[in-house]
Amino acid sequence: MEDLDNQHWLEARFANIRPKAVAALTRQFRDLDLAEEVFSVACLKAIQSWPDRGVPDDPFAWLLVAGRNAGLDIIRKNSRRANTDVTLSLPAEKPADQEEWVDNAGLRDDVLRLLFICCHPDLPPQDQLALALKIVAGLRVEEIAGAFLVKPKAMEQRITRAKKTVAAAEVPFEAPGLVERGRRLRAVSLMLYLLFNEGWSASSGETHLRTDLCEEAIRLARLLFDLFPAMSELMGLLALFLFQHSRRDARLDEEGHLVTLEDQDRTLWDHTMIGEAQLLLDKSLRNGSTGPYQIQAAIASIHARAAKPQETDWREIERLYAALETMQPTPVVRLNRAAAVAMVDGPQAALNLLDSIGNELENYRWFHAARASFLFDLKDHSAAKVAYQKTLLLQPTEAERQFLLDRIALCEKYL
Amino acid sequence: MHYSILIYGPEQVFERLPEDEREKHLQDHRDLQQELSSKGDFATVRLMPSSHAVTLKPTAGPSQKPLVVDGPFAETKERFMGFYVVECDTLDEAVAYASQISTPHGHIEVRPVSWAGGMLASS
């Protein structure tokens, strides 16, 4: 029994070390496949050695050294076969001093680089996410395929193709300067934001909540924040994720139907998580600078702090969306602002705001869903019904589809 | 005498364990807390991740005002995760309590308390 327990702890430990180890091994070997492979070899060695000899004082350094030795072996064997000069392909020998391996300043850039490699601009966003989940988070292909609702075979091919694309990209391996580091942090933060949203709001299919993706996004954000603990926008990003994720148990009812924020049982919200999110948000705002993630986290915090929906400070939310719109003047932000305007100035004011973005969001289901609900509130039930029907055509999830059908039936009752 | 039981370990590993495994470990803590509570006063704290900390660094300036920076005091392999403070007659007793909540991947330090204030009055 004790051994079995240990196995879980070992696996959790490996999973935790993996992003840093694969990042450092990628710098060492400049080869993603090799880095992944030798990390697996190192974990196998650890499984054989640790239970007998005890967990080493520094498991991370132990795995790195084992991984590096395994990599050097593979390179030696391959070059012997190819009859090339070993010394040319071998990385420069490192001193035995392990401290250099666990140098934190270098490591944080390694992890950032590895994530940044996954955000290659030639890759479609979903492939970027799949690649990061495979290489950095260490998810199995079947798990990733399941999360994205595609066949494992197709996912395997996509990941292989994506790896080829990034291998050709040549991201420099020396430590980045301040400006470059900032650029990478922004790109990686955006990728994590997309990953979280992918889990939070499935683009189609029956599983409305794919909490595993949200949890991976939170883990990666925690990892990054741990490496860059002074970055306000990383605090904002993690706070935003935690505020959203705190509502996971309240978002679906027993039949799996979507429950709107207004109707959620707020006692089901995870208040420990909300506390952590609030701390991170407050901490990020002390630093003076504000970015889009902090503002979104601030909006989420207003919802989280309202014990009842009627206590929500919509005027403050509207102000925050207006601030967000100055930083990100996108139709989607305006759509969200319209929802807040509806609460403060009524549905007609919100509809007027939507008119300005109707062309750009013609195929966006949230646009039609919002319009439908404003029209419904204005008691224009025939127009509301048309808008709900439009929403229905734009690949809603199963939970949303149920909600829309209920709403259409309700509109018909009034006609 | 009061003894502190200081828990160190890698962060975000416990969170990755399967649900039943986590529950089992939390139960160990609940059992210990119940036992300590029936015995008298104790305190226990579970800390948020160390990345959430701020650190006050001394400055050499004339005002002597510390500089408040984001992040933990030290980058360490194992992080300080939480603690208990319990009243025990012997060190062995404190070690026995600590072993009730030990895990395969953490370290626990048992250190006698020199003085306690606030919720715990020093005896």
What would you say this structure looks like, in words?
The complex is a heterodimer of chains A (415) and B (123). Chain A has 415 residues and is mainly alpha-helical. Among the domains of chain A are: 2-92; 106-169 and 178-221, no CATH class. Chain A is built from 19 helices and no strands. The relative contact order of chain A is 0.06. Chain B has a single domain (2-112), classed as Dimeric alpha+beta barrel (Alpha-Beta Plaits). Chain B is built from 2 helices and 6 strands, in the order βαββββαβ. Chain B is globular, with a radius of gyration of 17 Å. The termini of chain B are close together. The mean pLDDT of chain B is 90. At the A-B interface, helix 1, helix 10 and helix 12 of A face loops of B.
- As for the number of domains of chain B, it is 1
Gross morphology of chain A is elongated
SSE string of chain A, helix = H, strand = E? HHHHHHHHHHHHHHHHHHH
* Portion in beta strands of chain A: under 5%
Oligomer: heterodimer
Shape of chain B: globular
Mean pLDDT over all positions of chain B: 90
Query: Greatest contact pair?
Result: A-B, 29 and 25 residues
What is the CATH C level class of chain B, in words?
A: Alpha Beta
- Structural class computed from helices and strand pairing of chain B: alpha+beta
